[in-house]
Amino acid sequence: MGSESDSINRHHIAIALGIGLGIVVVIIICLVLAVLLNRRYSSRPFVSKDKEEKLRKLDAVSPVRTLEEFWSNLKGPITSSEGTDGQFNCAVCLDPVLPSQNIRELKCPHIFHKDCLEKWYLKNHYNCPLCHKPYYVQETQPGTDFVWMV
Ligand SMILES: [Zn+2]
Ligand SMILES: [Zn+2]
């Protein structure tokens, strides 16, 4: 009698273990799927409407140009001596700015990568990171000579 109920108990334990393992496997599969889906979403270039709108406004005051275009408007073509002597370094990421790279034209002659300036701007900084000259005045002050104070 005793051995019979023992084997029934063992049988129940085996079923319980099987169900438990099954649940664990399902949870793991769900987690893996969730991670994969998240990765797919985050790999998509996600720009919120707010950011797009802000960048559109920035476009109006600070057009995107290559460094070469900007420089030839300002001082004529980049000569080989200027390219080597006058180092164009982006003060945000400290990397050199190459003549073919995109920058944003500011009210001051400072040069930053387009992406670096956009990151700076999207943190609600409306002044040049170097000289603090405002390049963008918020539209909430229309008609006034509002200047951003440092
Ligand atoms: Zn940079
Ligand atoms: Zn500046």
UniProtKB/TrEMBL annotation:
UniProt key word Metal-binding: yes
SMART domains, per the entry: RING
RING-type domain sequence ranges: 90-132
Keywords: Membrane, Metal-binding, Transmembrane, Transmembrane helix, Zinc, Zinc-finger
Transmembrane segments: 12-37
Any GO MF annotation of the entry: zinc ion binding
InterPro entries (alphabetical): XERICO-like, Znf_RING, Znf_RING/FYVE/PHD
PANTHER family: E3 UBIQUITIN-PROTEIN LIGASE XERICO-RELATED, PTHR47258
Name of the protein: RING finger domain protein
Originating organism: Aspergillus sclerotialis
